Amino acid sequence: MRSMSRQALLAALILSISLPALADERGPTERGPTERLEADLRALFADEGTLEIGEVEEALIRDRVTAHDLHFAGPDGQQLWLDRYMVSGDYDRPDEVRIEGIRLETPGREQSRLVAETLLLDTPSRAVLPLHEETWPADVTVDGLTVEALSAEFDAQASEQGARTDRGRITVERLQAAGVSRDALDVLEISGVKGKAAGDDEFGSGTFALAFARVEGLRGLEGAAEERELDRLEVRDLSLDFDRLVASLSSLEADGDMTDGEGGFRLEALELDLARMIALAPEAERTRLRMLSNVLTDGSGRLRLDADSSGRWESGDAASRLLGELTLTAEEAFGWALDADLPVRLPEGVVPADYLARMESLEGVTLLGGRIDATLTDLGLFGRLPTIMAASQGLSEAAFLEQARTQAQGFGMMLGPEIEAFFTGLVAMMAGEASELAIALTLPAESELEALSADPLALPERLEMRVESR
């Protein structure tokens, strides 16, 4: 059997039930279900180790065949135990396959142990599936998959070359999937996830928990990661408590399916415990980080972020429209709102609905004017900036604000009056003379969007900009 990687705990589950072999070519009429199941279970392991089966029996009342007390021993010390492997319904097209009492142990430098109470496969295309294979045959499908009470442990020891040591444990109350094939998942749900990890990776050691997550319309699993498509994602009650990251998230909802003309995401209550992360940071960095935290959180050490974004498109014969809205709020710091309405001409020969739903770049898209309105709101951040900035420069607050006004005028001389109005508005917010800064942009017609985005410094000369302090 293949060795199990600690980064692929779910793949380990798949490996742990790798009891398949292709159906015997001689056909179903020559052997009964018990003989066929035993033969199929033994076929794969004949070349990879030894397999013991306690008994195989067929139920008298209903169409069900069960193999009991399976034990596999691999050439490198891997061991797999299964209490029961049950096939219900027609053996050639089962109603379900149920596996109970799964235990897998892998020795060596990457030791691991995996346990699952049950694995249920709903309407699989075969009685014994090639789940251990990285690439399934095209005709292999599973309508549904459910895993109950999954736990996995890993202990990757340091190698002679000095590689890091990673240890961890993860438990999952329930995992469900529907529409499973080698290239796609219609739905995947996971609930009751808890875990801990100890190691030297990006976030260090710590614990994590996830109440619920759901994925819909995941496609392109056989291709490169950047080419995969996802229709929807939902996450609820995520918490991370690591050496270098302490955070929690109430909910995240994302709609990536633009075929219906709209999509977006909603982020609720992402909270970062800056105070704890700073306390765990290297001592030389703590002073600078505390200053930044005080500016953002008014000394509380906790930063909460909420965001809501939506985008949609409308197709027409001569032109199409791209519309979008975004709001971002950093509690007790600032708010940012954006509203865009952009008429565009698409490349010749494309079907607007198909092109806009899968648009990955701006190449070939011509802007036909349009507007972008943005509003920056002070929720406390700008009022705190003068005190912090003046102290860091050894100035009084009045002197710092006067210096900032002079710099804003300098930007205006170099980049134009609109840019001066923008920076002057920021100074007014720091001085308490304004609480909002509104920016209205009118974009040029007959412009290539990709060219505009590639040269942002030239934008002031090519668009109309209005700035208002409120």
The secondary-structure element order is HHEEEEEEEEEEEEHHEEEHEEHHHEEHHE
Overall outline: elongated
User: What share of residues are in beta strands?
Assistant: over 45%
Unreliable runs: 1-29
Helix segment count?
10
Radius of gyration over alpha carbons?
30 Å
Number of strands: 20
Give average pLDDT, whole number: 85
Distance from N terminus to C terminus (CA atoms, Å) equals 68 Å
Keywords: Signal
Organism: Halomonas urmiana
Protein name: DUF945 domain-containing protein
Core attributes:
single chain, 470 residues, alpha+beta, 20-stranded antiparallel β-sheet, 10 helices, 22% helix
What does this entry look like structurally?
It is a single chain. β4 (93-106) and β5 form a beta hairpin. This protein starts with 8 loop residues before the first helix and ends with a strand. α4 packs antiparallel against α6, α6 packs across α7 and α7 runs antiparallel to α8 (417-430). The protein has a domain at 371-469. It is α+β, with helices and mostly antiparallel strands and 470 residues long. Mean pLDDT is 85; it is low at 1-29. The protein has a 20-stranded antiparallel sheet that branches. The protein has helices at 9-16, 33-45, 274-280, 283-297, 352-357, 381-393, 397-415, 417-430, 449-454, 459-462, and strands at 50-58, 64-73, 79-90, 93-106, 110-124, 142-156, 166-180, 184-198, 206-219, 229-242, 246-255, 262-273, 302-314, 320-330, 334-345, 366-368, 371-378, 436-442, 445-448, 464-469.
